[in-house]
Amino acid sequence: MTEIKSNALVIGEKELGENDKLLTLLVERYGKVVAVAKGAKSVRNRHMASCQLFSYASFGLRKRGNLYYVTDTDLIESYYDIRTDITKLALASYMCDVINDVVQEGECEDEILKLSLNTFYAIAKNLKPLEFIRACFQLRIAVIAGFTPNFDGCVECGGSTSKFYYFDIVDGIIYCDSCKNKLFYASAENEFLERGLSKPIAIISESVLAAMQYVIGARRERFLSFNLEKDELSSFYSACEKFLLNQLERGFYSLGFYKSLI
Ligand SMILES: [Zn+2]
């Protein structure tokens, strides 16, 4: 493909020399593309507004040698309300790092693009608390990336009437209260050893489980449209974060920075 004309979200930017930028774009129908934006660091450059982190724009891209170059832009949404709030900016930066991690170059990832646009809109417009949006985004993107937890009842007995579940966030399975002893097979070599358990476990109530099932199954436009009791929120937030980070087997500097602000 030597020329691309499509909408794209800027999910990464690096300075390149005096005036240029190296952009990582999540392009509709094409997936992740790295492109040079000549002169985009200058405020006088006509592509400047489209070539910033979080901008969603129509891009014209042309391949020369091994690299794509930005030839044309038309800004659709700059998410100005994210840029003007340091906490929102830090959260959206972390999300871009996650998107970069889960999307492979050359793979079409339109579902992740649409999820990102919905999520950035929710952040910009304060549709829900930032931590709520972060939790839902993390679970939803994990599922799109192929890490779907199995919430069809307890993995041992099939039961689905427990008040609490023991969510094994490595294998993405749940154990009911009666079967939780199956988790106590701790081995000293296991790097995840925690509180006598062999793996990291999130203990979640049936309402948190229902919330997670909702986030996974809801239509994309509705994935944030639910409520959870206040005292259940921290357990929901923690389970969603732990699940994604364990599946990706990494942490993010940008997440630490965001957390230092809240
Ligand atoms: Zn069971």
Describe the structure.
It contains seven helices and eight strands; from the N terminus they run βββββααααβββααα. With 262 residues, it is of the alpha+beta class. It has two domains: 3-118, Nucleic acid-binding proteins (OB fold (Dihydrolipoamide Acetyltransferase, E2P)), CATH 2.40.50.140; 119-262, no CATH class. Strands 1-2-3-5-4 form a five-stranded mixed beta barrel. Strands 7-6-8 form a three-stranded antiparallel beta sheet. A hairpin with a 3-residue loop joins β2 and β3. α2 runs antiparallel to α3 (110-124), α2 runs antiparallel to α7 and α3 packs antiparallel against α4 (130-144). The protein is elongated, with a radius of gyration of 21 Å. It starts with a strand and ends with a helix. The relative contact order is 0.12. Residues 186-195 have low confidence and may be disordered. The site of zinc ion has 8 residues, from β7. The site of zinc ion (ZN) has 8 residues, from β7.
What is the terminal separation in angstroms?
43 Å
Q: How many domains is the backbone divided into?
A: 2
**Binned strand content:** 15-25%
Helix content: 25-40%
Strand order of the largest sheet: 1-2-3-5-4
The shape is elongated
Oligomer: single chain
Bound molecules: zinc ion
Count helical runs: 7
Report the order of strands and helices: EEEEEHHHHEEEHHH
Let me know the largest β-sheet.
5 strands, mixed, barrel
Quantity of strands, as a count: 8
CA radius of gyration is 21 Å
**Structure classification:** alpha+beta
Weakly predicted, low-confidence segments: 186-195
User: What is the arithmetic mean of pLDDT?
Assistant: 92
